[in-house]
Every structure is written in C-alpha cells, then in structure tokens.
Amino acid sequence: MAKAFAPGKCILFGEHAVVYGHPAVAIAIEQGVNVSIEKFDDWVIDGKSFDHSKYPHISHILHDLFEYKGEPLKIEIESQLFSAAGLGSSAALSNAMGAALHKLIKPQEKLDIIKLAKIGHSAEAAAQEGRASPTDTATSALGGCIVVSGERLTGTEHVFDAELVTPEGKRSWSVCKAILPEEIEDVWLILGFTGEASPTGKMVANVADLLSRDPDKKSIMTNIKEITQRGLDALSVGNFEVVGMAMNECHEQLRSLGVSSDSLDRLVEASKPYSLGAKMTGAGGGGCMVALSRNPQRVSEQIEISGGKPMISKLVSKGVRLI
Ligand code: PMV
Prior knowledge:
With 323 residues, the chain is α+β, with helices and mostly antiparallel strands. The chain contains nine helices and 13 strands. Strands 1, 2, 3, 4, 5, 6, 7, 8 and 13 form a nine-stranded mixed beta sheet that branches.
C-alpha cells in the first residue's frame, strides 16, 4: 500500500488582486488530505466503484499524467478539510494522490516536489475548465508560506515558474517561498468556516463586473497589493502585530470589493478581540475567515458562538509527504 498526506492552505493576503497580476501570500495549514492506494481486483474509490467523472483530478493524474495502465486500484481518501471552503481541498487531494501514486509506481525514485506541484496544477486546471492559479497546489506541495505573483518580490526565494494556457490566453506566475524567521513564537491560525460554500468562479466574475462598471474601484487592487507587501515584510521579521493589522486592513479592502458576506463579517468581528488580526480568506461569499492569535482556544470559542466551525492550525506547516 502507498500512502501520502498533503496539507490544505489559506490565503493570508492578496486574494482577488492576484487575478490582476498582484501577489498573493498563502500558507500551508496542519490539516489536509490523506490518500492511500493499493492494487486490487477492481477499480474502487472510498468503497464505491470508481466513477471518473466524479473525480476529475484523480482521473487526470492517473491517465494523462502518469499514463497508468497497470492493475486496478483501490483508493481511499480521508479529508480533514472543510470542502468548497477555500482551504485548497482539491489541490491537497491532487498532491496526495500524485505522491501516493508515485510511491506505488516508482518506489525507488525520490519524490520530486516541484514536479508534483506542477502535476497538481495541471490536474486543477483540467478540473476547472483550464483556469487555475498554482497557488493552492504549490502551497500544498511545498508547505510553509508561498508567494505567487506575476513578478518576483523582494524578501522571497524563487522556487519555480508556472505557466498555463487558459481559455483567455497564456498565463505565467512566479512561485516563491517567503523567508520566515527560524523560530516562530506562539502564534496560531484559526480558520472559521461559515458553513456556506465559497463559489470562486462567481466571486471572481462579480469583481470583474464591478471593476468594469466602476473603474475607480481598481484602486482597491493597488491598496491590496501594498497591504500584501507590508504583511509579507512583517511576516519575514516575525512582527505579528503588524501582520495582524495588515490582515484587518485587507479584510476592509475585500469588503469594499463586495466579496465578504454577513457571516464572514460576523466571524471576523467576533474573533478580533482575541486576535492580532482577522480577515476572510479565499474567494469569499462564504467559505472561511482566518484569524491570527496567541489565544487560539478563545478565538475558536468566539467563532463557534457566532455560528462558525473553527479549526486551529500551527502557523508554519510542512508540505506534501509520504507516510
Ligand atoms: O477560495 P479560493 O482558495 O479558491 O481562492 C480564490 C482566490 C482568488 O484570488 C479569489 C481567485 C484566484 O484564482 O486566485
């Protein structure tokens, strides 16, 4: 049997602005997806017959990327992530599947994490009509804190470049690691799920519509870019008070873009008294918020009291691994 784990992610800064070429900062979380595979006498996934249309990521990895023609497989998936919540559950699934399959097929060969991130990105794009940024898959594969941008930012270490031919033309990104302090003090991420699905495509389209109706709103993107750089600089020197302030500011900018929601705002406000900062994370319209805090239990309680589902994660978590 081959087993692998890949973490989910949350976006700390730069969601939506990244669609317009600005940087996004994403961070791997402790929770993720476990995949185990073994050779079997029939194709089975989670105890049921494998319906390829229900698992486009897995199907693409198996057939198009690995060109798997071996014996049927029994695949088990166990996810610790809220799904459709902006936590990168499909990227984590792609990466864990790619890693487990690599172990099964090529047990002698070392797992190439960058190749895996690219495989995961291709699987995401195939499942999303050719449109996907490498943010989720790169963060889940590499772990730590990842900066995805049209340009290389100072204070980051370049890891690889990603390209994708989308229905709108060719896109390219620079994927970098943020350089974080060696010792991270006692700060935690607390994710709060609103219980509502986060419709990424719809939210991105709403923003595009808003900007075409009201071009003055484009300044919000520049504001988010500046906040992102400030947040990243503070993160790299371990100044978490400033990171938190930047998160609060980022939330306000995202609110003025119209991508927050009443439930996201409620969870953010409830978390603030016990947090360094809090904001929605990902596409918005539902999904999750994230708080940075030295008092994670208190923030979790606040999220629960306000109707959300909390999850606590270390600030720095490792990327995909064989288990
Ligand atoms: O909610 P998520 O994790 O799918 O994040 C979407 C982030 C956006 O910037 C809104 C879209 C994108 O493609 O980067």
